[in-house]
Design brief:
Layout (H helix, E strand, L loop, with lengths): L6 H5 L1 H17 L2 H4 L8 H14 L5 H6 L4 H5 L6 H16 L5 H18 L16
Helix pairs in contact: 2-4, 2-7, 7-8
């Protein structure tokens, strides 16, 4: 990777991240357990926020910070109950979304590793709990 090339660019830029997040939310929409965590009727705003976050993380536009401030991923998710089961549902849909991308193996592995580590870091409850609250504002 040259100094001028970001992972965002190497992964395909906006088109790749749009597809990744759109495919992820298609899975969420059809998953009653995970969908229940998003109280907004329209998943569109959550899709935009996640796409902006991921684009910024990988070296793309800083729109997320401009609109929402510092990402503070863990802090933004603390108000929501996130169990290992919910993490696993999230990862299932996210990895299925990664499967739709045509990334070179090294970039795909890097993306999968980051998403897995991020998902594991957000778990804040040891078991499934009935008092799950929404994630849509993260």
């Amino acid at each position: 990777m040259t100094e001028q090339t970001t992972y965002y660019e190497r992964m395909g830029g906006e088109a790749t991240f749009h597809k990744l997040v759109h495919e992820f939310y298609r899975g969420v929409a059809d998953d009653p357990e995970l969908r229940a965590m998003y109280p907004e009727e329209d998943l569109g705003p959550a899709e935009v926020r996640l796409r902006m976050f991921l684009e910024q993380y990988w070296g793309g536009p800083t729109t997320y910070s401009q609109q929402r401030g510092h990402p503070r991923l863990r802090m933004r998710h603390m108000p929501f109950v996130i169990t290992p089961a919910q993490r696993d549902r999230w990862l299932l849909h996210m990895m299925n979304a990664v499967d739709t991308l045509d990334l070179e193996p090294a970039l795909e592995n890097l993306l999968r590793d980051y998403l897995t580590r991020a998902a594991y870091s957000l778990v804040n409850a040891p078991e499934d709990r009935p008092d799950v609250t929404g994630l849509s504002q993260a």
